[in-house]
Fold this sequence. Notes:
alpha/beta; about 425 residues; eight-stranded mixed sheet; 2 domains; Protein-Tyrosine Phosphatase, Chain A
Amino acid sequence: xxxxxxxxxxxxxxLIYIDSINAKSIELGLDRVRRVKESxxxxxxxPVIIVxxxxxxxxxxxxxxxxxxxxxxxxxxxxxxxIYSFNERICINKTSLEEDLxxxxxxxxxxxxxxxxxTYFEITTLAAMNLMIKSNVDxxxxxxxxxxxxxxxxxxxxxxxxxxxxxxDHQDYLGDTLEEIGYQKAGIFRSNKDAIVNLDxxxxxxxxxxxxxxxxxxxxxIDFRVERKKDSFDYFGSGTHIANLPYPYLLGAHQIDNATGxxxxxxxxxxxxxIKKKSIENGLVSCELPGRIEIIAQHPMVLADVSHNxxxxxxxxxxxxxxxxxxxxxxxxxxxxxxxxxxxxxxFLNLVDEWFIATINSSRARPAGEIQQSIKNxxxxxxxxxxxxxxxxxQNAFEKSLLNDNIVLFGSFYTVSECLTKINTNG
Length: 427
């Protein structure tokens, strides 16, 4: 039920308001968003890069942002969801925008939508672009929220489109197979524009659609690649060789994969962008993104990751297996009801000594009792503690941990957000 339009400038109230008017049952497609985009005159005169993918899109956006910022450009970056506060979603030059600016932009979109129904994400996407236009950015990086073809960011025309991965997730919206999901994600490609396929084995639907629309397709392993070395890596593109690049500050071997597609983006930027090797190096090592294989503490090791599908979960497992302390492993875990819980927990069943679980504070949450049953179905002797909330689950795991133990927080953005908020408020 919609609530009254707020009279205040409090971002929290405006977010509640746009969520209350959230268009739940709307026709598929972007016509509504395009109409509001045009009524608001949101026509950027700067290059736009759109990034889609089951995993890796947030990291890729932030790596791009960091490199372009280090090169001296004014960079707008829009990502989602957030960990601590909504402001994280809209950044100019790696800095979150202030509440009053965001509220002013949301008001502008709301006043000019002429009663056209829009979702929460559609309103905030248009508000983000409005802020980038007003800030006169040199370039904008937009992360797809879900899929690609019908996602709100796709109303803008990208100079470059980057596809980071295709995995099984959001089947209710995107389809049940990699071919179906890949087709939806390839919807961000444009005719005669650069389309980067940063996948080792892309679905034929991705390449087929790119060929159908005559996109300028770059394929990992054919048009660009990297060679990993012990402490650095080399990038090879179209006549380009950048040697001895440092590993990204973001943790995990897969971040080199993300950097591969990002460097292809940098290579394909319009000619007036001049990106020196030093800017690339500085961008790689200064990029930060909370909740992506993030080490919060060492003794005990506290490791947070928003992984919520099997592909991402396996990457987290591989990192933890290699770098964990020698003691026990405690998992603080919860997950949404529409996720593949069996696939997410599978790598951890023989690694985790005890599970601390709770129900996420969301209408989409999977109840803790169901989570417990899913774990027990796969591992009957699993030790599981059900808590009232995730903050309590983390607190209990922390109190039980010795200095040489490990606590891994995963399963959802919500899981990581609730736990990290607890850690940052009172340890």
